From TrEMBL:
Keywords: 2Fe-2S, Iron, Iron-sulfur, Metal-binding, Oxidoreductase. It comes from the Bacteria. InterPro entries: ARHD_Rieske_2Fe_2S (IPR015881), Cholesterol_7-desaturase (IPR050584), Rieske_2Fe-2S (IPR017941), Rieske_2Fe-2S_sf (IPR036922), VanA_C_cat (IPR044043). Pfam families: Rieske, VanA_C. This is Iron-sulfur cluster-binding protein, Rieske family. Residues 7-107 form the Rieske domain. Signal peptide: none annotated.
Length: 330
């Protein structure tokens, strides 16, 4: 599968301890393990022993090797195997490239020449990382995250009011490798305390500016507010990086890294509470998206025959790049 030629986040780094961990990505079952305490000693193998088909994730790590619990065969991070009963044997398990970055563990097919995805969060502070599973195919899951017409009904805080959706502008541009969407319109009403904590005002304009890339499939969102009269930007802003990882043809994992700018009033000690609150509502909004996707009556990725709106132009553009870049077809 060409999909495995791209770097995919598959597990939070702090979820991998001394025991091996099974993961599933693009219909493939893998096992992750730490050969030692260092980041450079990660292993990612096919979760099946080449001897008699035992799940290696049921085994243990011993002497920097993953030991199969069936016959004691062991494997190094590069897949090189040993058989205690037949020392001359040279078994080999399928190995994958694996790295730990941004608090996540990433894998790709061994030797694939693709570069690691670019994630620029300079000037931002991490406020949270979360993982959700959508019961929907990759394309259908991505659809939800690259249009804002659903925000009045689905989102509680980030988005636009239904009665003013006609005022929201949507500018779509694309390159051979990306699709960018810039949405601008009135922020929906928020609970009064949130205005002070986010340093915004009622009536502010909300900008949701995102770019989707396709090696792997991920979207970087820049979300901020400005005074509609002066177009002066408010000091607070969010940068949310969301990776869409197919588990199977019908399920997609969503890994989200949320960042916020440091507000000028940090010295007053309010930022920690604001960060916690911001992280909580970002997680809440993601959960609402995932819940909605699970309730779709028709989850087929096919767009032909559907009635689309002016906000849906990115859907077709994204599908073309998923096919050509991510799946390598054409």
């Amino acid at each position: 599968m060409a999909e495995l030629d791209h770097w995919h986040p598959v597990l939070f780094a702090d979820a991998l301890g001394s025991k091996p961990a099974p993961v599933r990505v693009c219909e493939h079952e893998l096992v992750l393990f730490r050969a030692s305490n260092g980041k450079a000693s990660l292993g990612a193998l096919a979760d099946v022993c080449p001897h008699r088909g035992m799940r290696l994730s049921e085994g243990r790590v011993e002497g920097g090797r993953l030991v199969c619990p069936y016959h004691g065969w062991s494997f190094a991070p590069d897949g090189e195997g040993k058989s205690p009963a037949t020392p001359a044997a040279r078994p080999c398990a399928d190995a994958f490239d694996v790295v730990e970055r941004f608090g996540l563990i990433w894998i790709k097919r061994r030797g694939s020449p693709v570069v690691f995805p670019t994630i620029d969060v300079s000037g931002y502070h991490l406020i949270g990382k979360t993982r959700h599973r959508a019961e929907a195919p990759l394309e259908v899951t991505l659809d939800n995250f690259i249009e804002v017409e659903h925000t009045p009904e689905v989102h509680a805080l980030l988005g636009y009011p239904r009665e003013r959706m006609a005022e929201v502008t949507c500018e779509v541009t694309s390159t051979d490798t990306s699709v960018r969407v810039v949405n601008e319109g009135p922020q929906k009403a928020l609970p009064r305390p949130l205005y002070s904590l986010l340093q915004i005002e009622p009536g502010d304009t909300f900008v949701d500016d995102w770019t989707t890339w396709f090696s792997p499939v991920y979207t970087i969102y820049d979300q901020y507010w400005f005074d509609p009269a002066t177009r002066q930007r408010r000091p607070n802003a969010l940068r949310i990086v969301v990776f869409f990882v197919p588990v199977t043809a019908e399920r997609t994992d969503i890994f989200a890294l949320s960042y916020a700018l440091v507000a000028p009033w940090e010295r007053y000690g309010l930022n920690a509470f604001t960060y916690l609150l911001t992280r909580a509502f970002v997680v809440m909004e993601l959960r609402r998206d995932v819940t909605l996707l699970g309730k779709l009556a028709d989850k087929r990725p096919e767009l032909r025959g559907r009635t689309l709106s002016r906000f849906d132009k990115p859907l077709g553009l994204a599908r073309k790049r998923i096919e050509t870049i991510y799946r390598g077809r054409g």
